[in-house]
Design a protein that fits this description.
Order of helices and strands: EEEEEHEEHHEHHHEEEHHHHHEHH
Strand order of the largest sheet: 5-4-3-2-1-6-8-7
Number of domains: 2
Shape: globular
CATH topology of the largest domain: Nucleotidyltransferase, domain 5
Largest sheet: 8 strands, mixed
Radius of gyration: 21 Å
CATH superfamily of the largest domain: ATPase, nucleotide binding domain
Structural class: alpha+beta
Number of strands: 12
Helix content: 25-40%
CATH class of the largest domain: Alpha Beta
Distance between the termini: 40 Å
CATH architecture of the largest domain: 2-Layer Sandwich
C-alpha cells in the first residue's frame, strides 16, 4: 500500500511516499520518496527531492503559486529522474497534517465535505496553515479522484489539556465562544514522546517529558504519562515562544497602544506573524543559520535576537517543568531543534542544576 503524506508548514511544504505492508513496523519506515519546498518569498521556492535509491533533484521554482508548486513536486513521483511509481493511481491513500481542528476534531478523520468546511472555517485561527492544508486536499481530489484522504490535526494531541492550563483569564464568555488554548505541532509532539520512550527504553506512561519543537514555528509541550498537559502555543500558533517571524507572547497592552496609533487588525497580523521574531529583531532573516553567521561577523542585532530567543526558550522550558513537577528528559525536534547544537547546549547548561546529562 502506497501512502502519500503532505505537511504544509508556514514556510515549507514537506511530502513523502511510504510503502506499507499489512503490519506496521516497530521502527519508523524510510520513505520511498521525499520532497521539500522551502519558500524564499511569496513566489519563489527551493525544491529538493530524494528517493530511497539515492536519486536527487534540486531546483528553484520562480513565479509560481503554492498550488502550482505542489503540483510540480508531486509530478516527480511518477516522472523524471526521481520517479518511484508508474502513475498517480498507484497512490492508495493520502494523509494530511492539518493545523487547526478547533474543538470539532480531537482525532484523525476521513476527509469529507463537512471536514473541508470545518478546515476552511478555522482558517481565521491558522491563516498561514489551514488554507494551505485545504489546498493540498483539493489538489489531491483533482489528481486522484475519490482516493481516501485522512486529516490528522495538530490540535488533537493537546485536546485533553486540563482546563486550568487551557482557559485564558479573560471573561468566562470567552470559554463559551471557544476561545481557549488549543496548542499546535501536536503530531510532532506526540511522535517525539513515543520515540523518546523507545530510545530511553522506558514506559511512556511513567515519563515526564518536555518536547521542544523548534523550527520557523516553535512550541513546547509538557507530556506526562503520554498526554499533553500544557503547551506554549495557544488559541492560534502565534502564542508562546519567539519564532522565526512570529513574536510569540507579548504584552496585550502593546497591541492596544498600536491600535490607538492607527494600526488596523490586518497590519497587526502582518507585524506579529511576518515581521517579528528572529527576522524582526535581527533585521536579517528567520533562518537560524544566517543569524549565527551574522553573529560571527559582529552583527549586534543578530546577537540580540539569539539572546532573546534563548532567554524566552529557557523561561518557557522552566514553566513546562513546573507543570510536570519534574522532568525525565528534554527532547528537541524540527529544523533548529535538530540541527542547532548551540541551542541544545545552551538549554542543557541551564539545566545542570537539576543534575541531568547533555
Amino acid at each position: 500500500m502506497n501512502i502519500l503524506v503532505l505537511n504544509a508548514g508556514s514556510s515549507s511544504q514537506k511530502s513523502e511516499l511510504y510503502a506499507l505492508g499489512e503490519v506496521l513496523p516497530a521502527e519508523p519506515p524510510a520513505p520511498l520518496w521525499s520532497a521539500q519546498l522551502d519558500w524564499q518569498d511569496a513566489d519563489t521556492a527551493q525544491l529538493t527531492v530524494k528517493t530511497a535509491q539515492g536519486d536527487r533533484l534540486e531546483q528553484e521554482l520562480k513565479s509560481i503559486s503554492r498550488s502550482e508548486a505542489l503540483s510540480q513536486v508531486l509530478s516527480t513521483l511518477w516522472q523524471g529522474s526521481t520517479q518511484v511509481i508508474s502513475n498517480p493511481q498507484a497512490i492508495d491513500g493520502v494523509g494530511h497534517r492539518v493545523v487547526h481542528g478547533g474543538q470539532d476534531y480531537r482525532e484523525s478523520v476521513l476527509v469529507t465535505p463537512e471536514v473541508k468546511a470545518a478546515i476552511a472555517r478555522l482558517s481565521s485561527l491558522a491563516p498561514n496553515h489551514n488554507p494551505a492544508n485545504l489546498e493540498g486536499i483539493e489538489l489531491m481530489e483533482q489528481l486522484l479522484g475519490d482516493i481516501p484522504q485522512v486529516a490528522v490535526f495538530d490540535t488533537a494531541f493537546h485536546s485533553q489539556i486540563p482546563a486550568a492550563a487551557a482557559t485564558y483569564p479573560g471573561p468566562y464568555d470567552w470559554v463559551e465562544q471557544g476561545i481557549r488554548r488549543y496548542g499546535f505541532h501536536g503530531i510532532s509532539h506526540q511522535y517525539c514522546a513515543h520515540r523518546a520512550a523507545q530510545l530511553l527504553e522506558r514506559d511512556l506512561a511513567e515519563l515526564r517529558l518536555v518536547i521542544c519543537h523548534l523550527g520557523n514555528g516553535c512550541s513546547l509541550s509538557a507530556v506526562k504519562g503520554g498526554h499533553s498537559i500544557d503547551t506554549t502555543m495557544g488559541f492560534t500558533p502565534l502564542d508562546g515562544l519567539m519564532m522565526g517571524t512570529r513574536s510569540g507572547a507579548v504584552d496585550p497592552g502593546i497591541l492596544i497602544h498600536l491600535m490607538r496609533q492607527g494600526y488596523t487588525a490586518d497590519q497587526l497580523d502582518q507585524v506579529l506573524n511576518k515581521g517579528s521574531g528572529l527576522k524582526g529583531i535581527s533585521g536579517l532573516s528567520h533562518d537560524w543559520r544566517l543569524i549565527e553567521q551574522a553573529i560571527a561577523q559582529g552583527h549586534e542585532r543578530a546577537k540580540l535576537a539569539r539572546e532573546m530567543y534563548l532567554h524566552r526558550l529557557k523561561a518557557h522550558i522552566g514553566a513546562m517543568i513546573m507543570s510536570l513537577g519534574g522532568v525525565d528528559a528534554v527532547v528537541f525536534t524540527a529544523g533548529i531543534g535538530e540541527h542547532a547544537a548551540s541551542v541544545r547546549a545552551a538549554v542543557g547548561a541551564s539545566l545542570e542544576f537539576l543534575g541531568g546529562q547533555n
